[in-house]
Structures are given as structure tokens and as C-alpha cells.
Write a structure and sequence with these properties.
single chain, mainly alpha, Arc Repressor Mutant, subunit A, two-stranded antiparallel sheet, 8 helices
Length: 158
């Protein structure tokens, strides 16, 4: 299974949002600068994430995006499926027509692996991952590297 850029970027952007969400709305420009994801691509991803009820926009000065639900209620699998990614690694996408319209010899193996992979990703919440010390250290470094002072100051002051 190869997770596409769309899925990776969506999870990365949502992690950034989850880490900074407690401080206030986060702009896509901040995420773009910090994570190295183009702003136009983020806009496309966040339209899908908003449609699936994972994020909500905040208008006006100090606006941006915030999580639509608590981070402990959003799984990595929720994010990946929200942007139309699929964790199915069968050749037939689960249709059981892998070999000349019929089920292939190894279909059940790949189907079982797909189910386990989905269960693994569905068992990891944004909150669990965002609160790992290693992840927090990377977030602080990234904020510092791009002069995201408003987050560095508020996170350490809180």
C-alpha cells in the first residue's frame, strides 16, 4: 500500500492544526509555511476536511481553521478517508475481480491486511499522536524555524 501525497499532507496538516488548536485558529498560510505544503493544495484538502466535519473555518481578524471536534475524537483513518484516500491494498479495491474478473489467489491475504491497516489507523487519534514528546519537539522546532512566534510564545506561556 502506498499512501498518496494527498493522504500524507492531510494528516500532516491536521496534526499541525491539532497541536496549535488549543491556542486559537490556525491559518492555512501558517500550515503551508511550517509544513512545506502549497497553500492551494491545502485549500483543496481543507475543503474536503470541512465537508466531512473535521475542521471549521473562523472568519475575521485572527481567523483561520480549528478542529470541528476534539482531537481525541478524530482518528488518522478519519482524515485519510475524508480526503478520498483508500487504505485498501487489494489490486481490485475489494471488488474481488482481481484476476480476469474473478477473485485472485491472494485476495484474502491483502483484504485482511487492508482491514488491519485501517483498524491501526482508526486506533490512533490526533490527540494521542500530537501529545507525544517527540512530536511536540518537532512542532516547537518547526515553529521556531519559520518564526511562528505567536505560537511559540503562547504555547510556552500557557
Amino acid at each position: 500500500m502506498k499512501l498518496s501525497t494527498k493522504g500524507r499532507y492531510a494528516v500532516t496538516a491536521m496534526m499541525d492544526l491539532a497541536i496549535h488548536d488549543k491556542i486559537g485558529p490556525v491559518t492555512l498560510a501558517d500550515i503551508s509555511q511550517c509544513q512545506g505544503i502549497s497553500l492551494s493544495y491545502l485549500e483543496q484538502l481543507f475543503a474536503k476536511l470541512r465537508k466531512q466535519g473535521l475542521v471549521e473555518g473562523v472568519r475575521g481578524p485572527g481567523g483561520g481553521y480549528r478542529l470541528a471536534r476534539p482531537a481525541d475524537q478524530i482518528t488518522v483513518a478519519n482524515i485519510i478517508t475524508a480526503v478520498d484516500e483508500n487504505v485498501d491494498i487489494t489490486r481490485c479495491r475489494g471488488h474481488e475481480d482481481c484476476q480476469d474478473g474473478e477473485r485472485c489467489l491472494t485476495h484474502e491475504l491483502w483484504d485482511d491486511l487492508s482491514n488491519r491497516l485501517y483498524a491501526f489507523l482508526d486506533g490512533i487519534t490526533l490527540d494521542q499522536f500530537a501529545n507525544r514528546p517527540e512530536v511536540q519537539a518537532v512542532a516547537k522546532r518547526q515553529d521556531r524555524d519559520v518564526n511562528r512566534h505567536h505560537f511559540i510564545f503562547r504555547r510556552t506561556a500557557a
